[in-house]
Amino acid sequence: MKIEIPRECERLGAVQIYGLQKVYELDSGGNSGRADTSHNDVIRSIPSEALYERQKDMAIVVPVKNERLKLIEGVLVGIPHPCQIIVVSNSPRGPVDRFHIEKEAITNFCKFTNKKVLVVHQKDAAIAKAIEMAGYGELLGEDGLVRSGKAEGMIMGTLLARWLNNKYIGFVDSDNYFPGAVHEYVQEYAAGFEMFDTKSTFVRISWNSKPKVMENSLFFAKWGRSSVHSNKTLNLLLSHFSGYETEVVKTGNAGEHALTVDLALNLEYASGYAVETHHYVNIIESWGGILPPNEEIVHRDKVTICQIESRNPHLHESKGDEHVEDMIDASLSVIYNSPLCPELLKREIAEDRALRMRLEKPEGIAPVRVYSNLSNLKLDTFLEHCEAAFSSESESLSLV
Ligand code: GDP
Ligand code: CO
C-alpha cells in the first residue's frame, strides 16, 4: 500500500493525534521482484507481506443484529485470510432462530474458504458467567446476560480477541454492501500498525465518500451530519488545551477502527452511538496529562491515534435517518459530561443544541451509560472461565 506520511500532529501529554492520511495505491507490490518499496519524505510504500504479517496477529470483530445473510457473507468475503474473524451476534433466537441460521451460513462459508471464524451469541450464558466472575458485572443486565447493544458486543469481542491471543483488534460492521470496502479497511488497519508500531496505537478510518441518491443521480457526500458535530466539538476541546485552533480530528465517530488489544483493555466504553467519540475523550482523560494522574490507569509513553482516508465509497444498509439527532446528542454527551470539558465549551454545546432542536433555552445533555475502564475486569479469571465455557460445547459459542 502506498500511503502518505501525516503532515500534522497534535500532542497533548502522552497522546499524539496525527492528521488524516491519504492512500495513493491500495497495493504497491510485494517484497520480491520489481516491487516499489521506496520511502521518501511524503509517501511510504508498505509491501503486502508486511500487511499480512500484521494481520496474522489481528482479530476482526463483526457485530451482527438481524442483518441479511448476503450482507454478512459479503463482509466475511472481504476480510483478508490471515485475520481471526469474531462474529458477535445479537440476532433473536425465537420464534425463528436467526442466530442458528447465521451460524449455519457461516459454517458453510468456512468450508469453502477454510477461514478461522469464532461465532458467539451476545446472550451466551457461559461468557456472561465468566464476565461476572471476573468482577465486571456492570456489563450484564437483570437477566445476568450481556446487555444488548453494539458497544456491549464490541466489549465481548475485545475480550474474546484477547482470549485468542491476538495483538490487534479491528471492527467492521456487518451491513456493508461492498466486500471491497471491507477489504480496504482491514488493509488500512494493518498499514496503520505498520507505520506506528507502538503498544498503544489506534487506527481510525474516515470514508472518502458516502453515495446518496439525490434527484435521480448519485451524489458522493463526504461528511455525515453527526460526524461534523463530533469532529468540530472534539477539535474545540483540543484547541482549548493547546491554545491553537485545530481541525486535526476527522474521525470522531469512526465505526471502522482498530487498536492494539492492550490499549482496548485499558479503555472505558460508552454505550450506544457514543462509543467511538468516547474513545477520544477517554484517551485524553487518561493520558492527556490534564486531569490529575489516576494511579489505577497504566502509564504509557505514548498513545498514537492515526487517521486514514479510505478510497472505496461507504455504503451500508439504510435504516432511516430519524436517529441522527440522537446520534449527535450521544456523541456530544460524552464530551459535555467529561471532567475535561471547560465551562465555555459546555455553554457552546448547549447553545448549539438549543438552536438545532429549537429549544426555548439551552439545557445540559444527560449522560449516557459508560462502562468503567476494562482494566477493572480481572483478566486471568475471565480467561480461565472462558476456557471452560468453550469446552462446554455450548450451542451459542463455537469456533468454526
Ligand atoms: P449505523 O451503521 O451506525 O447506523 O448502525 P447499524 O444499525 O448499522 O449498526 C452497526 C453494526 O452493529 C451493524 O453491523 C449491526 O448489525 C450491529 N449491531 C447493532 N446492534 C447490535 C447489538 O445489539 N449487538 C451486536 N452484536 N451488534 C449490533
Ligand atoms: Co450501518
UniProtKB/TrEMBL annotation:
**A Gene Ontology BP annotation from the UniProt entry:** mannosylglycerate biosynthetic process
Tell me the InterPro entries matching this sequence. Nucleotide-diphossugar_trans (IPR029044), Osmo_MPG_synth (IPR012812)
Cite the entry's keywords alphabetically.
Answer: Glycosyltransferase, Transferase
Question: Cellular component GO terms, alphabetically?
Answer: cytoplasm
Q: Which Gene3D superfamilies match?
A: Spore Coat Polysaccharide Biosynthesis Protein SpsA, Chain A
**The protein's name in its UniProt record:** Mannosyl-3-phosphoglycerate synthase
- Name the top EC class: transferase
Q: Note whether NADP occurs among the keywords.
A: no
Q: Which domain of life is it from?
A: Bacteria
Q: Which GO terms describe its molecular function?
A: mannosyl-3-phosphoglycerate synthase activity
Q: Under which EC number(s) is this enzyme classified?
A: 2.4.1.217
Taxonomic lineage is: Bacteria, Pseudomonadati, Verrucomicrobiota, Opitutia, Puniceicoccales
